[in-house]
Amino acid sequence: MPVIVNNKKILPAPLVTFEKNIELSDDGRFLGSSYSVNFDGTILQNKGNPVAITGTNFSSSFSSDPWTSTQDPSDDPTHGVSESDLLISTITKIETLREALTPATGIKVEIVGFSNDKGLKFYGDLKNFTVNNDKNWSNPTSYSFSVGFNNFIESANSGLFPNGSSEDNFAYYVQSASDRWSIQESDQVVVNTGNFTQISKVYNVTRNLEAKGKKVYNQSGVVLLQPWQQASGYVISVLDTSTSSLPDSILGVTSGYSLTGRKIVENVDKLGGSYSIEESFIYLPSGLMPSGQYAIEDTSLSIEKSESSITTVNLQGTIAGIETNNPYTVSGTGVSKYTNAINYYNSVKASFYNRARLNSGLNWLHPKVKSFTEGRNPYTGQVTYSYNYDDRPPNLVPGSISEDISVNDTYPGQLFSATPVIGRNQPILQYLGSRSEYKRSLSINVFMERNWQNWSAIDVDASGRWTTADVAGVRYWFSQKPSITQTSYFQGIFDAINPANEVGVVASKCFYSAPQESWNPKTGNYSYNIEWTYERS
Hints:
Elements: E1 3-5, E2 8-10, E3 15-24, E4 30-43, E5 51-53, E6 59-61, H1 86-100, E7 107-112, E8 119-131, E9 141-149, E10 174-192, E11 195-213, H2 227-238, E12 258-269, E13 274-284, E14 295-305, E15 311-321, H3 337-348, H4 352-360, E16 371-377, E17 382-390, E18 400-410, E19 414-419, E20 428-435, E21 438-448, H5 471-479, H6 482-485, H7 487-497, E22 505-512, E23 516-520, E24 525-536
């Protein structure tokens, strides 16, 4: 059988040793196969191919004459090398063989029959070339070389496997792979948004998936994918980010947890032919937070009691959103950490009052937040908040943010005259035998929610002027005066304070002065003042 290297026939044909190596991971997973063929041949100084060319410029070259394709060696020509040129014949033939194996990569090798083109065909890489010292180089001299490869040009059995493939039909060709995990308990925790006593751990998970690829030629001798690309294809094909891929952990990671906040670091070693992806995750109990809204919340509560006996409760915190975008795409196919932070905040802020009340230990806390601030940072993906509650009495007027209702009573005093006298250092005081009247004043100051907007953004120019304002539009503002919109509630306060409704007051002898009312629709500030003068029975 001839051995053809890069379309050059080597005669006499070297003996062939074929070897297939199976590559397994440490857990027994079948990663791939590699092949090597060892050739053991003999250099004949006056026979074979390459041919020694005698003369002034002694050389050797490969012949393509018909005798190289016959099975009978009797027609092989004699080179006519003299005894004094046997050594140079050996050296030039060895050099010609080495040249046929150059470059050392992408060598086409065919081991076929003389009458049948089928056989062992592949492109491979030269591993070594050795000329042995078993003989004097002036005598027939043995040599050996080996070629490594990973697939075949074609199958000797038609249709056994596709051209340019291997008998194992790998999607990607790798020689080694590793899958390393790290699970670490985080300093952070997740607190149930509705129950501060339910606290669960958070874990930081990292994974390093790495593979080392092989050089593979197609049936035309072209490397379509570099080794690092073969490794990349393998790594991405086996990548699994579901919780089922997590190894068993002694840290007690249980069901009900979700892998999220995925970040990746991609490492490519072009010369080394390796590729790796380092992933990091946050492994957290998603059941304790609003569905699908991933964020870590750091919250605290402080209580302060002032000299006015009002207890103030401040609830503040930071919500750090978790990125759920696909890290493999620039635009992302999930939700950004900022959007997750906003969605989480919008879902939980309705629970802030209950958080403040239950964790303050107070029996009563006004449900209307006294003041609050919130901050949003799209760059860090965070939302900060601070909500202030207190135990002030409940409101009497619907829609009011704060109320200040005060009553002043003036009781009767003695009536007397003060008569100045010339030369006397003080006036003469004389009791008139009567008392002054009863008086009561009511003062109401209320800040209302400003929910009377009757314009849109397109109605306001860059200077802030309401360009479409008309008489009816402006009048509407003033029609939202709380004494109009909440008449019955103000009447209730009025009736409760009116002295005429008290026992012992002569209703027919109870008079009120002109009430005074003030309303600022821009600030929502409303005030009402009235004074009664009355007589008791």
